[in-house]
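Action item from last meeting closed. Structure (625 res):
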């Protein structure tokens, strides 16, 4: 989780305020809070290292607000303190009892660590544990042993800590009154490292290089492999690796257990199904606020699926969704005014922290004020405004279908051509880049980047509407249904939805002209072998048409009058996604160099084989239904 030092100097008259009076400073924390560490026993005897910051002011009792993390709870020394406490910089001044805990098997906590520890289906005995029981036992100990606490507890976390927050809501301790899973990991086969079976290489490789296996009690995040990779050009680096079976002999040396497990489980088998938390999000009693970003390159799936699972499986509880124009975790930063070249017109992180996050916890943990939260509090990109809805997706969206047509047209009129198709040659040795940026890992800003670099490539099919004569607002998920064939026996399929700006836009503060800009709005990928089943992959039959159904994540975006809607379709997206050999092999992680072949792919746009996109269109006059 990102933690940002407040850098704005504060002045009263002409006298500077001292560092100890700034809520976002180690000096302030040291002056106003008492630091304690504890080894909290779990039901099986394992002890979890926990640091507690309690207000020195004892004039009232304070609720506890807690986060559990595998990333370390630095600093561990009693004479050093964090720069800020809680979910955002306003909480330290508000005053809570802040609790930070190393999860089982990480850093200073005892026990054995498990990535996305499976939830117990049925407890065989009183000492059986999962992340829900560890959270329960921790809260139970804290409310009984932390001086001056009010008996009410809140839980929060971003990304992996978001998973631990979600798990902690299940069969929750009675003292847990509010929980906020933020960009939570929910199911790694569809989020983060896998997207419908395609492996997100440039994200997973650097992550596990740093995260790797548990390192015992030593608080370090040093890379397992090396201090650097010798280049910032991830496209070249990962292409030079060749087949992914080369990663271990060249870099990991079989030291990264979870990497090896991923290689052994390329399908959605029991290994992954056991790590899907969504079916277990039942018996959730606390108030829940799930938070995410429209441009989260890591855990967008987890955000929407967590909200939906809680809503469906826990009728009647307080459950809200908050989505802003953010990259992964950017709502916790001091400033989130823009991403890449796209400006959102205001500091959306500051708005969220003051008007949404702080009131949520204050209301449910302190009984203070009103939260004023609707069912869905979401930011409408394209026109840069916050919207409130009583349902998500909004209840008054109208389904609209766009068809791929001749000469690169995208139209609401169905195709009438017989036997029509477009084709392109896909060469795994020259894959379509993730973006035009030179980066090693997964560049967050690719989610709003200019897609003109791709639309000019011969291996990218491009379709667009006529110039819009009125604003068009899309809300909710986007469903792609494309008819394809290939001369090979396997292929990936990437579908992007893009906002094409008209000419005449001024330069942005980054120096980029937005005239003709093709803004990435939403995209998704599927490994074609999983088109009919994620558990049982199957090859394509060369030249035989097949159907690819792919759900893109939700949007709330307005394509303004004068803009166009564009759809791009291609088959490589590197190094974001690993390369598909395009020759069917049982496990792509163990493919040989000679398995990678050039193939010609077809996308059909005929009356009998119509490729289309189905979207939800929100009437502009809606008041937030």
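Sequence:
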């Amino acid at each position: 989780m990102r933690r940002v030092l407040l850098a704005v100097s504060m002045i009263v008259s002409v006298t500077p305020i001292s560092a100890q009076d700034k809520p976002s400073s180690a000096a302030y924390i040291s002056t106003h809070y008492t630091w304690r560490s504890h080894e909290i026993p779990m039901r099986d005897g394992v002890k979890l290292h926990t640091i507690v910051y309690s207000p020195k002011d004892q004039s009232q009792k304070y609720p506890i607000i807690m986060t559990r993390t595998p990333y370390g709870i630095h600093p561990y020394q009693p004479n050093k303190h964090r720069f800020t406490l809680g979910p955002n910089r306003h909480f330290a001044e508000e005053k809570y009892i802040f609790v930070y805990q190393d999860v089982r098997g990480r850093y200073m906590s005892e026990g054995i660590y498990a990535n996305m520890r499976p939830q117990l289906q049925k407890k065989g005995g009183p000492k059986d544990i999962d992340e829900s029981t560890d959270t329960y036992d921790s809260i139970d100990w804290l409310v009984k042993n932390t001086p001056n606490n009010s008996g009410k507890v809140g839980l929060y976390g971003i990304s992996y800590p978001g998973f631990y927050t979600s798990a902690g809501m299940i069969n929750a301790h009675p003292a847990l009154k509010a929980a906020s899973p933020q960009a939570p990991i929910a199911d790694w086969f569809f989020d983060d490292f896998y997207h419908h079976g395609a492996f997100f290489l440039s994200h997973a490789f650097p992550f596990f290089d740093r995260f790797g296996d548990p390192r015992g009690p030593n608080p370090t995040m040093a890379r397992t492999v090396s201090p650097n990779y010798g280049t910032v050009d991830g496209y070249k680096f990962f292409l030079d690796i060749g087949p992914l079976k080369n990663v271990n002999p060249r870099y990991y040396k079989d030291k990264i257990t979870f990497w090896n497990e991923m290689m052994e489980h390329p399908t959605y088998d029991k290994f992954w199904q056991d790590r899907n938390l969504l079916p277990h999000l039942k018996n959730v009693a606390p108030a829940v606020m799930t938070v995410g970003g429209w441009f989260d390159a890591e855990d967008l799936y987890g955000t929407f699926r967590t909200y939906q699972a809680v809503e469906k499986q826990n009728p009647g509880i307080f459950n809200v969704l908050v989505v802003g124009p953010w990259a992964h975790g950017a709502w916790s930063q001091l400033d989130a005014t823009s991403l890449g070249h796209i400006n959102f017109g205001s500091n959306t992180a500051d708005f969220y922290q003051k008007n949404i996050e702080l009131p949520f916890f204050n209301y449910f943990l302190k009984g203070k004020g009103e939260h004023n939260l609707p069912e869905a509090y979401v930011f409408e990109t394209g026109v840069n405004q916050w919207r409130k809805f009583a349902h998500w997706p909004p209840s008054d969206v109208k389904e609209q279908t766009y068809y791929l047509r001749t000469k690169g047209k995208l139209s609401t009129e169905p195709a009438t051509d017989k036997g029509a198709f477009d084709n392109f040659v896909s060469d795994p040795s020259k894959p379509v880049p993730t973006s035009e940026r030179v980066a090693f890992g997964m560049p967050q800003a690719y989610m709003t980047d200019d897609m003109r670099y791709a639309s000019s490539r011969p291996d990218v099919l491009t379709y667009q509407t006529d110039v819009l004569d009125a604003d068009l607002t899309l809300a909710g998920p986007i469903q792609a249904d494309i008819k394809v064939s290939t001369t090979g026996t396997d292929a990936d399929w990437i579908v992007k939805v893009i906002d094409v700006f008209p000419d005449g836009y001024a330069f942005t503060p980054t120096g980029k002209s937005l005239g003709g800009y093709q803004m990435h709005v939403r995209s998704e990928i599927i490994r074609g072998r999983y088109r009919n089943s994620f558990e049982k992959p199957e090859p394509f039959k060369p030249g035989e048409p097949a159907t690819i159904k792919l759900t893109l994540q939700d949007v709330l975006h307005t394509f303004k009058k004068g803009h166009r809607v564009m759809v791009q379709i291609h088959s490589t997206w590197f190094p974001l996604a690993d390369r598909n050999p395009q020759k069917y092999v049982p496990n792509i992680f163990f493919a040989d160099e000679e398995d990678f072949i050039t193939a010609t792919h077809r996308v059909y746009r005929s009356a009998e084989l119509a490729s289309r996109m189905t979207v939800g269109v929100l009437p502009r006059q809606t008041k937030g239904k």
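Note appended to the action item: The chain has two domains: 11-187+275-389, 398-617.
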